[in-house]
Amino acid sequence: MQALRYCRKFLCDYPVGCLSVLRLPNSDRIGSQDRIVDSGGKKGVVCEILQANLRENVIYRAKYPLQMADIKDVFGKCDNLFRPGKMRKKAFTLIELIIVVTILGVLASMIVPTFQGHVLKAKEVAAKDNLKVMRTQIELYRVQHNGIPPGYINGSGAPTALLALQFTATTTGTGAVSTSTIPAGAYVNGPYIGKIPENPFNKLSTIAYVADGTDFSAAVDGTSSGWLYKKETAEFKINWTGTDSEGTSFNDY
Fold first, then answer.
1. In the chain, how many H helices and how many E strands?
2. Where are the alpha helices (DSSP H) in the chain?
3. β-strand partners of 20
4. Which of 180, 201, 200, 202 has its CA nearest to residue 189?
């Protein structure tokens, strides 16, 4: 039975490469029988076919009891395949896995910094574009309000909530705001922008005042708001600390 098991497993697990299956002439066949010979042409035993799979491997049952020596004699050069170690399915070794992981690590160390550099550069460009848009709208607001920049209503300072509306809604000539975006009545100016853009670094769109006489560098913290605005001078800057990829301070944007 052990010999039969090895015979069956061998023919199931391995394609007919080392072996040749010779079909007997019909006149010599008894039922459904074949003769197995090794690759050297050595005659083997007559077996009864039980089943054939799609790879043309065949499961055989011996017509008489076989010993291991008989199977080795039949299979000849393939007898080393009966060893348990040879019958295992091939898999990656630990060394191969370590090599693959190492290669992936090297590739990641090369690609990730480049990708991060592109992301940072894109944020820098977006920050400059948003600053340009806001500064342009501030100048347009001044032109339409007799030289008075956003941040004032009837000559007095406006709270930051109304400052945002001076950009996104309609206003009077003195800076009074309406929640409507459609000019009507005295509210004939604006809106100047659909919404306040985000700071691409901290994702905030809020505007914080910087007091007159206070330097922007002292007000920058990167977290309290998206933008910094000094109404006395109409200066508008990004609220982000540090320097960009070219070494320029964000405060100098």
1. 5, 11
2. 2-13, 68-75, 94-144, 160-168, 216-219
3. 37
4. 180
What are the structure tokens assigned to 157, written together?
A: 């300072």
Total residue length of the chain? 253
Distances from the Cα of 128 to the Cαs of 41, 151, 169, 248, in angstroms? 82, 22, 24, 12
Q: What φ, ψ does residue 243 adopt, rounded to 5°? A: -125, 160
Find the helix packing angle between 94-144 and 160-168, rounded to 10°. Answer: 80
Question: Which residues contact residue 216 at a Cβ distance below 8 angstroms, ignoring those fewer than 6 apart?
Answer: 210, 228, 230, 235, 237, 251
CB 131 within 8 A of CB 143: no
Q: What is the pLDDT of residues 167-182, one digit of tens each?
A: 999 999 999 999 999 9
How big is the CA angle at 145 (ends 155 and 126), to the nearest 5 degrees? 105
In three-state form (DSSP H/G/I as H, E/B as E, the rest C), the secondary structure along 51-78 is EECCCCCEEEEECCCCCHHHHHHHHHHH
Q: What is the pLDDT of residues 120-169, one digit of tens each?
A: 889 999 999 999 999 999 999 999 999 999 999 999 999 999 999 999 99
Is pTM, for the whole model, over 0.70? no
Distance from C-alpha of 243 to C-alpha of 80, rounded to nearest angstrom: 68
Angle, alpha carbons 246-248-249 (nearest 5°): 140
Which of 31, 213, 200, 210 minimizes the C-alpha distance to 126? Answer: 200
